[in-house]
Amino acid sequence: MKWLRAILTGILLWVLIFFEVSILMFGFNLSGSLYYAIHYLLIVFLVLLCSYIYFKRSFGGVREGFLLGLIFIVTGSILDLIITIPLFVKTLAFFNIYLFVGYLEALVLTILFGLIFRKRQMPSQNLEMLKRQISSQPFSPKVSKVVLSVPRKRARSKKKKR
Question: Domain segments of the chain: what residues?
């Protein structure tokens, strides 16, 4: 897990959601159930975009998707506590059911994206990721040598036809 990359994509997600909410509430003057319906549909796109940005250089998987979702939630909550609540809301809005639905949506989407992304990687990408992981781990006396190679195509010998 690349923590700094995950936190930065969480900040990006928060900024995108901040602009999306501002445009829906103030630009289009939406409120009520129509606002939440459009908001949750746009959240799907924004979470998947930020998940793609993170997972395009990561190994993927359910565990990493879960951790990324948690980081998105924690990063968004901290930024809401620091910026949104004191400047715009003026009340503690963390007990709103709609907020928890958005958190759950983000968590489920990052888990599914991590699972799907891991399965869609090419074998050569998996091999490169495995090589990087093995080279970054300390030497283990149990394993003397690990050979990872991609089988090469055999060159065809040119035979003279008679």
Answer: 3-136
Contact in structure between 139 and 93 (CB atoms under 8 Å): no
Closest by Cα among 46, 50, 48 to 7: 50
Contacts of 17 (CB under 8 A, 6+ apart): 43, 46, 76
Rounded Cα gap, residues 37 and 45, in angstroms:
13
Q: What is the pLDDT of residues 142-161, one digit of tens each?
A: 554 555 555 555 556 556 55
Rg (CA), the chain: 23
| Exposure of 127 in the CB half-sphere (CA atoms within 13 A) | 9
pLDDT tier at 78, thresholds 50, 70, 90: very high
In 23-140, alpha helices (H): 32-55, 62-79, 97-120, 123-136
Contact 85, 91 (CB under 8 A): yes
